[in-house]
Write a structure and sequence with these properties.
The complex is a heterodimer of chains A (about 500) and B (about 240).
Chain A: E1 10-16, E2 22-30, E3 36-45, H1 49-53, H2 61-67, H3 73-87, H4 95-127, H5 138-144, H6 146-167, E4 176-177, E5 180-181, H7 187-217, H8 219-224, E6 231-236, E7 248-252, E8 258-263, H9 268-271, E9 272-275, E10 284-287, H10 291-294, E11 297-298, H11 301-307, H12 314-325, H13 337-356, E12 376-383, E13 386-394, E14 400-406, H14 408-411, H15 413-428, H16 435-447, H17 453-456, E15 464-469, E16 475-482, E17 486-489
Parallel strand pairs in A: 6-11
Antiparallel strand pairs in A: 1-2, 1-15, 2-3, 4-5, 6-7, 7-8, 9-10, 12-13, 13-14, 15-16, 16-17
Helix pairs in contact in A: 2-3, 4-6, 4-7, 4-13, 5-6, 6-7, 7-13, 11-13, 12-13, 15-16
Chain B: E1 9-12, E2 15-18, H1 25-31, E3 55-58, E4 61-64, E5 75-76, H2 81-97, H3 112-119, E6 143-145, H4 155-163, E7 169-172, E8 179-182, E9 209-211, H5 230-233
Classes of the chains: A alpha+beta (about 500), B alpha+beta (about 240).
The structure holds iron/sulfur cluster (SF4).
Amino acid sequence: MNDPSKVNLKRVVIDPVTRVEGHGKVSLLLDDDNQIHEARFHIVEFRGFERFIEGRPYWELPMVVQRLCGICPVSHHLAAGKAIDQLAGVSELSPPAEKLRRLLHWGQSLQSHALHFFHLASPDLLFGFESDVRKRSIVSVIESHRDLALKGVKIRKYGQEVIKAITGKKIHGMAVLAGGMNRALTTDQIKQLKIDIKDIINWTEEALVLVRKLYLSDIALHTKFAKADSAFLSLVDKDGTLDLYHGGLRIKNADGSILHDHYDYSNYTQLIKEQVKSWSYMKFPFLIERGPQTGWYKVGPLARINNCDRIDTIKAESYRQDFLAHSEDALVHPPLAFHWARMIEALYCAEAIAKMLDDPDLCSGDLMRRGEKQLEGIGVIEAPRGTLFHHYKINENDQVTMANLIVSTTSNNQAMNESVRQVANTYVSGRELTPELLNNIEVAIRAYDPCLSCATHAVGKMPLQVELLNSVGETVARCSRSSETGFNVE
Amino acid sequence: MTIDIKNPSFLLDGEEVPFTEGQTVMEAALTAGSYIPHLCFHPELQAHGSCRLCIVESDNRLHASCTLQANSRLKVSSQTQAINKMRKHIVQMLFVEGNHICPSCEFSGNCQLQAMAYELDMEEGHFHFRYPKREQDASHNDIFLDRDRCINCELCVRASRENDAKNVFSLGGRGTETHLCANSASGKLGDTSLDVSDKAANICPVGALLINDQSYVTPKEDRVYYQTSISLRGNRRPKEIE
Ligand code: SF4
């Protein structure tokens, strides 16, 4: 080993079994005294995508890319859709088409946030990070908080119904065309969606009140847990209002000052670069002007709620103000506040859906616009997990020659590493390895809701392997965890 | 069975199927509303007998029903377990031979190969996927030739010759290298006289010839085989649906 600082290190690897969309594992590099030398969160994602799409006609993009992610396919469908609008030379959609897309996006964000909160985050928050792993699951939530769990299922289902009405299917539907949408809603569909929306708003608000209460119940712990202060990046609309579908990029520094505002995302390559690290398949985006060391930033609900000046729905806006009022700093940085911000957004989505369902444009047949073909298209959207960039180039024959995606989870990559390092140093260093200590790391990662459900979503069910490796790569100890056998040390 | 010379018929799976002089078993069966699975047959074009999905058994021999002349002595079996198993294997071979990415394919729901797979209860490829590298042709302004999907049925070849009087297509290569060629000096579709309104451009059963600005325009639930099987719907292109 050439690096003298890495002599006599052990490595702890938390390695969940992979699945198609992504693969995450946590490595803790320990020294002889069990002090954390380095913490790394590895992800494999979207490999081979660029090759797969090469030579395909560009109008296939929204259909193809959504298949690469089973977690937020609608976001990819829409981001690719915005990019191919540009390829088709359409800079402005017909109002009905844009409204349908926005409605679709709210449905997607609502169901994604509901899934994350009720199934994944609430067990951590309700039962504590170091509680028995078998207790920290949705099954336990259903047993002890039946009403809450059922409402969670219904909110998610409602979001999926919105998606189905617009795309024909709950997942992997088909709606977005270059320059518009392929169908309007019928009055029957709208009538159907209106039936439950009041309940959905109320239940989402209940969940928001609960997450707020849980967060504030141990504010000392929750504000310092896994803290990784950074700049925030998100879209805002032209007057600074929260907008998940379109807008300019706003970047706020960690101290709350604005670094960039209404930045045209078509120029994102001048703003953001991605660094490659040998130990991870996932790139590390950074702000070019700050460089890779300090230029990392966070995206997602926490970034959006911190960045926007207002939310244009009544309830969500009052909760946003309340959220900010609880921070001593100019911005709210703790990763666990992601959960709170996420539910403010969920409430916003529910309220926005209710408003939109009254708009007669949803049934209009004016769905398509045409334009002069362009050879490059960039589509950016606020996916549930954060800003999502889709960038394509095509040749004269409409075939894709270049594809570049920066997915939300990638943008939070460095922040997650910082959080893991912070948690590892606070909770693991100097203590024996126990499942609860490892759970703390997972709780930190889960706050970011990264797009790799196996690694972070199926806690307590997924088989986990932890290996201790010495500096020459020999396994000195190994432990594992599975739902059948629990935690075992070999 | 008594033979009625004035109203001749043959037996298909035990049912009498009337025919007229010169009809094949396939033609007579389709006229009578009895479906025999097929992909390369089209009632307006010369029979080809290449896809072999329309095999039927008669006198302990297998025949392509699209080329088998109907006669009154015939007793033909089509819907038997053994024959459908063979058909399923043929469809599986067609799938593994090309690159059929149904989930994101524009033609999904309209595709006769996909519909045939459902019809025959195909649940997996069974054979080793070949993942061939096939050249795409995007040179035409209105039509994209996606050879990944092509099953070499020659419907477009025949339609261009017999219907459009153009001869835009032919098959080239041999064995597994067989592929659809555009008959132009450059070999590019854009340099042929193919027009978007030609029968040849609108006959492909698998969407290997796609009209560019029609892609994904039809919602899933409005597609030909979204709810109805191919044996009930017949081999239809989207525009042929009433
Ligand atoms: S392009 Fe279509 S119609 Fe022509 S040979 Fe291939 S599969 Fe048959």
